[in-house]
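Dock magnesium ion; give full complex structure.
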Amino acid sequence: ENIKIAFIDPLSGPFASTGTNGLHQFEFAADHMVNEQGGVLGGTEFEIVAFDNKISPKESLIQLQVAIDQGIRYIAQGNSSGVANALTEAIDKHNRRNPDSRVLFLNYAAVDPALTNDKCNFWHFRFDANADIKMDALTDVMAADEALKKVYIIGQDYSFGKAVAAAAVSNLSTKRSDVEIVGNELHPIGKVKDFTPYSRKIIASGADAVITGNWGADMVGLGKSLIESGYNGPIYTYYAAGSGITAALGESAKGRIRLIAQGDINPIGSDEARAAYNAFEAKHPDGNIDQSRIFNVIGMLAQAIEGAGTADDVVAVAKQLEGMEYDSMWGGKLFMRPQDHQIIQNMNVGVHTDENIEFDYDNSGFGVLTESTVEMASMDSPTTCEMKRP
Amino acid sequence: MIEVTDMHAYYGKSHILQGVTLNVQEGEIVALLGRNGVGRSTTCKAIMGEVEPKGSVKFRGTEIAGRKAYEIANMGIGYVPENRDIFPGLTTRQNLNLGLKPGQKDGAGRWSMQMMFDMFENLDRRADVEASVLSGGEQQMLTMCRTLMGDPDFVMIDEPTEGLSPQMVQKVAEVLKEIAARGISTLLVEQKLSIAMDIAHRVYVMGHGQVVFEGTPAELKEREDVRKEWLEV
Amino acid sequence: MSAAALELRGLKKSFGKAEIIRGIDLSIGKSERHAIIGPNGAGKSTLFNLITARFMPTAGTVKLHGQDLRGLQPYQINRMGLSRSFQITNIFPAMSVFENVRCALLWSQGYKYSFWNLVNNSRRLTEGADAILDQINLLERRNLPAGTLSYAEQRALEIGITIAGGADVIMLDEPTAGMSHSETDYITDLIMKVTEGKTLIMVEHDMGVVFGLADQISVLVYGEIIATGKPEDVRGDPKVQEAYLGAALEAEH
Amino acid sequence: MSDQLTTDPSKPAQRMRAGSMTLTLMPWIVAAIALILMPFIFTSNSALTIMNQMWITVIFALAYNMLLGQGGMLSFGHAVYAGVGGFACMHIMNMSDLFASFPLPVLPIFGGLFGMGLAMIVGAFSTRNAGTVFAMISLGVGELIAACSVIIVAFFGGEEGISGDRTYAMPFFGNEFLQQIDVYYLTSFWVILAAALMYLWSRTPVGRMANAVRDNPERAEFLGYSARWVRFYSFVASGFFAGIAGGLFAINYEILTEENLNTASSGVILLVTFLGGVGFFFGPIIGAIVFTLVQTVLSLQTELWAFYAGSLFVATVMFFPGGLAGLLMMHVPVFKLGNAKQLIQPYFKTLLPAAIGILGVCALVEMTFHYRHASIGDDEMTLFWTTFDSHTLLPWVIAGLVAFVGISIAKRNAPDLKEAWDSANTAGDAS
Amino acid sequence: MELILVNIIDGLVTGLLLFMLSAGLTLIFSMMGVLNFAHASFYMLGAYFAYQISIALGFWMGLLIAPIIVGVLGAGVERYGLRRVHQYGHVPELIFTFGLALLIEELVQFIWGKNQMPYNVPDVLNFTAFSIAGNSIPAFKIFMIFISIAIFIGLLYILTRTRVGMIIQAALSYPRTVEALGHNVPLIFMGVFGVGTALAGVAGVIAGPVLGTFPGMAFVLGSIVFVTIVIGGLGSLWGALVASLLIGWITTFAKSYNLAMSDVLNAIGIATPENLSEHWLRDLWTVTSPQIADILPYILMVLILIFRPAGLFGKRHS
Ligand SMILES: Nc1ncnc2c1ncn2[C@@H]1O[C@H](COP(=O)(O)OP(=O)(O)OP(=O)(O)O)[C@@H](O)[C@H]1O
Ligand SMILES: Nc1ncnc2c1ncn2[C@@H]1O[C@H](COP(=O)(O)OP(=O)(O)OP(=O)(O)O)[C@@H](O)[C@H]1O
Ligand SMILES: CC(C)C[C@H](N)C(=O)O
Ligand SMILES: [Mg+2]
Ligand SMILES: [Mg+2]
């Protein structure tokens, strides 16, 4: 019997592209890192079971229930903190009400800080740096730019976008109180047809830099329109890579887009990682590894299951994950902080360029080149999490 | 001109026409009589192709059963429906204009818009108002004129005098004669016996979805039994 | 003169520049059967529409049982006991013939907008509707959708709906148009019967019906009433002869 | 333009059959027993969740059909009434004192009241007209309220929505509704109650007049009824039942989000209702069941579920304009004539090959999809419990053959079916 | 001040793009009564086809050929789908187009996948036409303006100089009668639907490079095109134009200026309540114009429908 991981993310609808790309990375990582290495617990393989939640909280809850019924004990999800908030709460309730069929929530991308603060629970593990950690690292780079005078913050109107904006404001005010925030606004997620008016406003405000957490179509739209409208400063982003975004921005954004992420792609973190990436490319010529943390999820889960000696007792597995230290093939050490189940790792700031790129995105020749690294970012950052353990 | 042989027609499962046979000759006015609901209107619709006919309908020797309504119309058959079907949103003039066949110019045929206005002074007065607000009688006139605009060689007119004032009824009778005078054949469905008997060359009486009597008005006058049984007069 | 059932004073109606009703004064007494005749386009239906608030008058007043109808909606007027039929058939085509009539009974039987009564449970409704259907000879067609009736049957249903509510002022716009002679006779009798003791206002081009039914006749020509009176008087009036009846009268009788 | 978008009752798709609904208790008792027995057949929690979802959709779709089928009003924003009802219930759940003072099964009533309240406000101006004007106002108001959900965070909770915990209600005979099965029976109780009430509503004077106003608002006015008020009452009642559905949603999922309000949800309920058939009271029930199955069960099987759903809708409107209910009801005369037996064999001979052929086509579609989009080296695919290599010829030949043969047999036998159908519909020749 | 000028141009571009879509829709909706929910899907097809053609034959051939293909597809949809459904009434038609929209989106994903296509502005037009205070106006936008105006003039000619409009309007109420007068109604319906969808195709070809060519592009446009033609008044080409521009400008300006509700309320003399964060209306006080920019057209539509149900330029209504 395989160890099944339910992948609950959008596979249809407007956000399908991000979800599908994530699924491919999960499937590949499970095969490459576990199954082809002989499995865990002496031969048990990982199996990724895909569930399409159409990015709807309601659908996610139905799929969660279905997954649990199929005997699945591990739930992976990442697209949209909105869904993650619904899932973590549902899982908490489910585990309380049904001690016999408890599940773990492996959050690989939903980075709303609340998930590891006020809304934290024992079942939720986040394998991505949260919005605060990322912003901390990003603003370190920005603060170093002497010429920076005016910053414009723009983001999607939901928990994640709000978290990014709040973090940007607080970080900038402590690190560079001389920098003026000339704009701070949210736009509806996934609904803006044309970003031109926003770009005009940004240009008119005289901003030297733009900060945005936008992802998916919202990132492409904003990026393209800013550049087309004549903005020529840097854009500091969270998710401006892969899933067609790199190709769409292309030459025009060269050296202008800066991106905060974990894991080293260019230059690659290790030969092991290079081999993995090449194998992935061979399998998905049109795909990218733009969420290398997915490999960390698989690797750490495998390690935890081995450690617990069982995959069925999720409490035991969770106990293993808590405080786990893990060497990532993408470079650096990972540490799952036990207080809040937030992973701590090196954060990289990279630039969108076509120089020195070994692994490009979207076959466009462009990719993200690491420019600076913050080691074990926010290791000691505070958390309001009051973890209740079973 | 038109030759209908053993025509059947259905609405869903109900068998309305059960073998109608009739013909209209060149330049003839033929009246189709019968009680309410025997299927006179359905006969017209079936000839026109609005209701699917089974059997044979020949127009000038060509089989037209099964053709599309607009093809039949373009062959020279006109139909004035009983429930008027005025096009709302269009003016009287535009309604008349739509009577013209594709590509046909006003005045090119036997009739012109001006003649219509001359004939029915009511329409002239209301030429440019939205036709759906016309009075009942005016709508009746308009429907007839609209069909004539297309210059048909054979027209089927379903109850043209319904809702018309006595004076207008006379007027319509004259128009019908005028139509015949211009060499157009007419199949007239009419409730007012007096008129039908007056202007028709021949009459058919329908009952139970079939033709039950055929003859001249004079012959019908003599057949008390037919009138009793099928016309209830 | 007893209080009139319906009283029109200085009624006018224009559509844009066209003045269709040009000042009508008319009073129709209780239990009177009053026919309005006139050439096509004279404004008869418009007059009906003014009375029943389908149109707003440009000027003048309409009084029903002495009460001014200004500003009232059609449904309010109906509730005051006035019911009308339409020249161009106006029924509920998708509902069964029976339901058409039953709907016409609902308000008059006091059901209003209630949602605590079930219509099927009321014998009075069912029997009432069936009685009407019987009168208009449509009992056999009871369960057919009204839209599939033949033209004349729909006309009959139109009358059935109008008389169903038992209004005391009934207005019929060309009730017999499109009917054969025998049906016309039948409907004439029916109208005679159901309007017993009620006020009837009727537009009709069939002179047989008009003279058979009416106590009073008004002749409307170009928006004005040129004559009102007893049938005999109107028939003899040369003005009427010229404007409307013409030779037709002779042909008819 | 006002009369363009009412359901046109003279068209077969919309005809609400007069007299086709008799006041017998039988169907209700059967339904209730079925509801009680279901969990014994489908025991898993996910089945319960799906069934809960179904019953909620059933109530919502029936409420929607009070407008569309019975009242001829096409709404593009009906989700907001369910949604607002649900949000209100969510807030009540979070008011611990109030919530602890009554048992959970009562909660949907509050949802209904809030849905109704909103419907009264909106209905005050939107029911003046039917047709396009009504439809477009409903669209505008729907968009407006959906947009408010991210703006008025205090009530709608922004993009994340509002969540709560149903177990804090006063225990209901000791039950705290911890398990899905408890919620299932609560929902089942409500679905029967709400459906019965809505059914009865359609038999009341206002319910009947709603039909009349749909057919011919003007004539209804001349019968003493104000078309506007009749529409208003239907609208408000529909809002009430939609709110009940929203309340049940709140209980079942314990979360409400923008998604409960947006136009996509409003569109879905329109599709669901139509799929089932607007002309029959029970139409929306079938629609809700079928659609929920497609959406949750089929989407587990294939990524292309939306493609099949779209095909289902298109095929339904093209070939069965009366919806699935219309399709069923077509057979009533056959049964009445006692000729149903005559149909079994022709059906078997035509529909079975047709179904197999369609499955063959689906297989081809799936294989094409797999061939195009599966990652390189990932040639294996599993379809109908068989695993094979999509890059070899054999499976294509098999699927193609199945599709071709199935459909040609069906085509060949179709005339026989038609004949049998006609004869089964003709009285008297049952030998 | 300069920003105003820039916004006027941007709004014009947005509005005219909307117009290209609503022109086709108003043609179909007002003439055939079909609330074509798949209209935006044809727009999407236009963009995808143009992208595919532009790879092989360049942008200009795409501009020429893609709308024709879309139009032919549209005509096919009318011929083999809608025509059948038409007899059942308007709501089934609407459901049909709903289903169609779903199918087209799935089909597009089936063929082209889920990612955004690299469909870009052609090189000849890929330059900055001029700049206003640091804001560049791309030449492509100027090109869009010209195309839309050309379409407007062409349509106006067809509608006012031919009988097609009249025939279709008549056929809406009594198709049988119109046919009995000798008009080939089915052919005309098919033609109108084809032309309407082809127009949507043109809009797609032109908007694709600017707004992105991805499977959700139809959904994003959603119902705004309906709002446009309803505000303008059904059947009025002028109305569609005016409403499109109005919406283009309103949304552009609302997004470009951060006007807060509190400013507005303060300006009309309502003071901001103390401790706003506690206030139950706090969300209303903090609303800003970009937040509500996209729902302004809906608000406008509801208001117009309440007070003038026929729309701005609509001809008739009781
Ligand atoms: N669309 C329809 N569906 C079903 N039955 C219909 C339909 N149209 C007409 N019928 C039926 O067909 C029969 C014949 O109708 P038709 O209209 O031909 O009668 P008619 O002789 O013209 O009578 P009338 O004097 O009333 O116009 C009637 O019994 C009518 O009920
Ligand atoms: N809404 C309107 N707008 C403009 N003109 C109208 C309107 N309604 C009616 N008319 C015109 O007013 C005149 C009177 O119409 P009305 O329907 O009252 O005539 P009528 O006396 O009932 O005639 P008939 O005997 O033919 O039914 C007609 O010429 C008609 O065209
Ligand atoms: C997949 C990610 C882009 C999701 C996003 N970080 C969120 O928290 O919502
Ligand atoms: Mg007839
Ligand atoms: Mg009249």
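Observed: The longest strand of chain B covers residues 14-24.
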